[in-house]
Amino acid sequence: MSTVKERPPAIEVQDLVTHYGDRQILFGINLTIYQGEIMIIMGGSGSGKSTLLRFLLGLGTPTSGSIKMLGKDITKISPHDMHEMRKNMGVAFQGGALLSSMTVGENVQLPLREHHSHIDELTMQIMARMKLEVVNLGGFDDLMPSQLSGGMIKRAAVARAIVMDPKLMFFDEPSAGLDPVVSVELDELILKLRDAMKMTIVVVTHELESAFKIADRITVLDKGKILMTGTVAEVKSSDNPRIQSLLNRLPSNETIQADEYLRRLTGM
Amino acid sequence: MAERSIHGVTNYLDLLGRRTVSAVEEAGYVMALLGEAVFWIFAGPFIKQPVRVPAIFTQMMTIGIGAAPIVFILSFAVGIMLSIQGIATLKTFGAQEQVVMGIALAETREFGALITGILVAGRSGSALAARIGTMQVNQEIDALRVMGINPVRYLVAPALLAMLVMMPTLTFFADLAGLLGGAIYCALELHLGYTAFWDRTTDILVVGDVMQGIYKSFVFAMIIALVGVTNGFAVTGGAEGVGRATTRSVVLSISYIVIADMLFTYFLNR
Lengths: 268, 270
What we know:
Oligomer: heterodimer
Distance between the termini of chain A: 53 Å
Strand content of chain B: under 5%
Number of helices of chain A: 10
Largest interface: A-B, 23 and 17 residues
Largest sheet of chain A: 6 strands, mixed
Number of strands of chain A: 10
Structural class of chain A: alpha/beta
Number of helices of chain B: 9
Helix content of chain B: over 70%
Structural class of chain B: mainly alpha
């Protein structure tokens, strides 16, 4: 994938610093994601990967830094331009986040209905069904989300995310809570989206197997900082001990600072 | 000992300060939410993001039509209660016949709106908080935002509009149900005919009396909708958080309704 860097960038994150209350979560993130690549953001829990995703989705205001999407800085963009930008973004949330009061079909139609209300009812239904076919959920449009299994909900969420044919697609923990077979199917689907629809895809995950299978490049996050960004081979051969412990599932053996430890225990 | 009591006082002051700050913060949030909802209602159509009419009607069905039977039963019962108490009290003066005036004024000015308010707060305010809270927990609110669907426009504005239409309607309906309850009891107890009851009621009541209840119901509608959605959006901590928000929204909106009612009654009857 040496050609990846010759393509124009889709997402450029520069010096991103964020806080949650008084606690700093991200410490100056710099990351470039090129068009048409699958970028995996990996890291253990508490590494800040979910926070990074929230900010990429424009769901928060960072303390400092910029996030450029398709050439526009979404931290400084006007509400109207952000509204337009959202039409180019699709997200599959961890739990699917389908609206539970609507059928699967209505869920998939929702973005169309809100953004292109001039499209007639039948066309909208057909467009939604086409996307459901893409994710192998043909014929499920009249069911309620509560009647679907976990894997089906995630695929329905993908159908909703791609109904507007976005240029950028985000996945939050796509394989979390799924059995291995379904998880592999979802990986195949992600590859299909990149190849057939030329989407730029960002996947946040801690599942190594799936990450190595679908990634063009991997970014490893730890304690709010990027440890490295590179291809699968580069990450695998990295000699950084934190990356190796993540890859080999070893617990981190931090040396205990005696004074600090006592201070935490006593609360003084 | 002295040191400890000083410590207690500063602790108490600290807590008081924090509570005050969070209360002011919440009041600001409610006002911002109201402002945003009003913005979407009026400006939405011009920026091609209108508040959807079907969503308003769906809310009107659940808030209004769904509550009609229980509003009828409760107001009917209150009407009977008022006449029992009224007749018992007025009997001491031998003026039982005057009970019609008591029922008519109390029902239209006070109880129609109050009973409807408390009922809708318990029924729809809690449902609003639970619905939005669950959506918050399931990331459905985030999903709406990333799809470019403003949650205030999509969820808050329809509920607020529906509430503002249905509360006065239900209040008027409650007035009628209360008067019917009073009329039936008076007919049984005082052998007062229905026509006589109705004639006296219409003689006593002026438009202002009914409007007093209707004005209140607008305020109650705002209280219920805003308290419900505010608590819904504030949910953190999963299913337990949804439960807490639901309880809190019912308790708060009923309290605000009763207090607002008292203030209104004071100012409107001076």
